[in-house]
From TrEMBL:
It comes from the Eukaryota. It is found in: Membrane; Plastid. This is Sulfotransferase. It is a single-pass membrane protein. The chain crosses the membrane at residues 332-349. GO terms for molecular function: heparan sulfate 6-sulfotransferase activity. Keywords: Glycoprotein, Membrane, Transferase, Transmembrane, Transmembrane helix. It comes from Cuscuta europaea (European dodder). Gene3D superfamilies: P-loop containing nucleotide triphosphate hydrolases (3.40.50.300). The keyword Membrane applies. Its main location: membrane. GO terms for cellular component: membrane; plastid.
């Protein structure tokens, strides 16, 4: 983000409940790594993981190219094969527990995962460090030093938290994953009319018509037009997320068969002891505070925005089915898979806001 022009860039983000995010990071790392168990050994699995099929290039991405999965997944692959080899040496197939998050003979237990050095560095307080631009994926040369200092001297984390809060203050829009419907509708309401307006201007330019830049062309002069635009954008999002969730379900089904009977579900999370939940909260103290701050911003956005538009879009029937089934979102992308690409169109828009390096 630091490479984009300051005066023409607007930034949005979606903040997630820190405990849910840690669960999701653990589950996704295990599920993606589990696909490697189809291969006979770690060496062959690593070789295949490093290959880039043509289909992946066409899709424009690979999970192993995305932070933090490019670090977490290979590490988890090694652990899965180590446990598989140990089972073969022991000659035992007896599973001693029915708790998916504590089946140490098959996968790394959750209580071990949250205390591993790689989780302390990349997972815990990940939202705060991302917003502040201090992950190991940052352009800043001092990011590693700052992060290591915070891990060693916890009180220094408060300074990083303040930087993250100020950056949230400067963003165009803040969404909440656990308020998925409202966030999608609010996002469309906040930027939808401006995006479409910019597209309309672009079309005029392509057709050779003269655009008067001294006056802003606003095709959304009445609330009815704005509501319709918001509905259209949310419909596009609904279509895209339906496809993405179905694709995710298929990939997940193909993964968990290699680590059966391990199967992470929303219900199985309730089996995790309270002490582990409390430990996750404590390890993510900065993120817990940032999440509370993001909730306050979200409520202010709703008050500033058109509550009527958001209410009507939500009551229109969109996303109702998704709200029940999409408790586990794709952790390697922002939820608004259709709406977010408009940011790049909006990049050249006239509204000038501050930036953040994510």
């Amino acid at each position: 983000m630091s490479k984009l022009p300051y005066d023409k860039t607007s930034v949005v983000t979606v903040i997630r409940n820190p405990v849910d995010r840690v669960f999701s990071s653990y589950e996704f790392s295990v599920e993606v790594a589990a696909r490697s168990l189809m291969f006979p050994n770690l060496t062959y699995a690593t070789e295949m993981a490093n290959r880039r099929p043509v289909s992946v290039e066409k899709l424009g991405g690979n999970t192993l190219d995305i932070w933090p999965w490019k670090f977490l997944v290979p590490w988890m692959i090694e652990d899965l094969f180590a446990r598989k080899n140990m089972r073969e040496v022991k000659g035992e197939n007896l599973i001693k527990t029915n708790e998916p998050y504590n089946m140490g003979d098959i996968v790394m237990p959750l209580h071990q995962f949250i205390n591993e050095p790689i989780a302390l560095d990349l997972v815990h307080n990940g939202a705060t460090f991302q917003v502040a631009g201090l992950t190991n994926n940052s352009y800043s040369k001092v990011s590693d030093d700052v992060r290591n200092c915070v891990l060693k001297y916890h009180t220094l984390g408060e300074y990083v938290l303040e930087v993250a809060k100020r950056r949230l203050d400067g963003m165009l829009y803040i969404g909440l994953t656990d308020k998925h419907k409202e966030s999608a509708a609010l996002f469309a309401s906040v930027v939808g009319d401006q995006v479409i307006s910019k597209l309309a201007q672009s079309r005029l330019g392509v057709n050779g018509s003269t655009i008067n830049h001294s006056k802003h062309i606003d095709p959304f002069r009445n609330s009815s037009s704005k509501r319709e635009t918001t509905r259209k954008l949310v419909k596009l999002y609904e279509t895209c997320i339906q496809r993405s969730l179905e694709s995710q379900r298929q990939r997940r089904a193909s993964s968990v068969k290699y680590i059966a009977p391990v199967n992470f579900t929303k219900e199985s999370r309730h089996q995790v002891p309270r002490r582990i939940i409390d430990e996750i909260s404590a390890l993510n103290n900065l993120d817990m505070q940032l999440y509370e701050y993001a909730q306050l911003i979200f409520e202010k956005q709703k008050q500033r925005g058109s509550k009527k538009v958001i209410t009507e879009v939500m009551s229109y029937g969109m996303l109702n089915a998704l709200y029940v089934t999409s408790w586990k979102h794709l952790p390697f992308a922002l939820p608004f898979l259709v709406l977010l690409p408009f940011i790049f169109i909006y990049l050249s828009g006239r509204k000038k806001r501050s930036k953040s390096k994510l």
